[in-house]
# Entry
Amino acid sequence: MDVSQLALLRELADRGSVTAVAAALNRSPSAVSQQLKTLQRQVGVELVERVGRGVRLTDAGRALADSSVRIATAIAEAEATWAAYRDDATGAVRVATFFSASELFLPGLLTRLKAHPGIRLEVEDRDVSQDDFAALAADYDIVIAHRSDDVLPPQPTALRVVPLVREPLDVAVPLDHPLAGHDRVTVDDVIRDDWIGVPVDFPLDRVLAAMAVRAGVPARIIHRTTHLPLIENLVATGHGIALVPRHTSRERSAGRFRLLPLTDVRAGRRIEALLRPDRAERLAVRVVLDAYIAEAARYGDEPR
# Structure
């Protein structure tokens, strides 16, 4: 079997359509289809079947796609061993992250990577729904993702999941809020306020929704945005309260708004790195991942 043809099955499993695979690999859809047909003839088993206007992998195709992952990982391990022998951590490492994770990690990460001038870091902000981070791993070497406490990580067979930090979520209130003098609050204390929220199905939104269910009162959300500094500004100017990540917002809270821990609910988000297993073996990727882990260790009040 041709390794590159097997890799097409893996790409089809991850991306869902021949068109998406062709776009990712800079080939024509007809060329991808032809390669898949050639592989089918070689193995003598149907690997792809039509479903409506698209295609999907058969059980045999999925089994070979899984084998492709293991083959690619073994090749990457061999290449990494040779690169380590030559002390040659070089090349581009593409990272997808979300804005507040960049605030937490990126300055220190860039400082650490000065010791590795052969690595070219390419970072893009990709703030998506927590269920959509895993799909980004098809196009990036490292995906920095976050999820609420109640959500399980992606299946370990598909991706390597590296925990970085659990960041508590606090309630941000204006300095003149009736609760601003408290050390902590309960769900019932705050759920009936006006809220500045994030888009539906983002980790902070899931926590707020769980708080509303617990209290039996719907949360009154007057504005939604992914931009944390805007959320903080709206809170500071008295337009509502919000759930915000403690480590990220703490420095900007002084003299502007109060951060109040919740006493009766475990509110937090888990930040982790998602990687395809083969890309995780690249020496340059391992160096960048180790730098992320070292930066995350600075926030040691919550165990990784």
